[in-house]
Prior knowledge:
Elements: H1 6-21, E1 31-38, E2 45-51, E3 56-59, E4 66-73, E5 76-82, E6 93-99, E7 109-116, E8 129-133
Antiparallel strand pairs: 1-6, 1-8, 2-5, 2-7, 3-6, 4-5
Amino acid sequence: MRRTAWPSRLALGAALIGAASCGDVIGPLSGAVSVRLEGPAPVRSAAFRLVGPQSAVSAGAGTSNAVFTAAVLPDTLLVAVVAPVGHTLAEGPLIRVQVPDVRRVAGYRVSLLQVASADYTLQDEAKYTLTIGP
């Protein structure tokens, strides 16, 4: 009579799969990052340049802000974010950006171009800071 070795092969296969999944992630780790604006006063709109590979841009979670984008190079977008009439941009993420590798976000650049207050007056953009991160 011949014994089948399938139970031991199954156990060996499960052990190999488990060991393979315990290592560091190799390759890109796609996901979303946020662009945030900080400054001395609330603003109605902001325009900025985003440099780095991305696949999609959307308004920050829980906002009804309008987001307009224009690709100027394959990895460069011009972005404008505008709050609804009678509102200002809330603190927190202005936009969410889908990126091919969240571990490389340090190589991304955001440059503020213009900021307008609730009455549409242009503000000194040097007083505001944009950051990109998780």
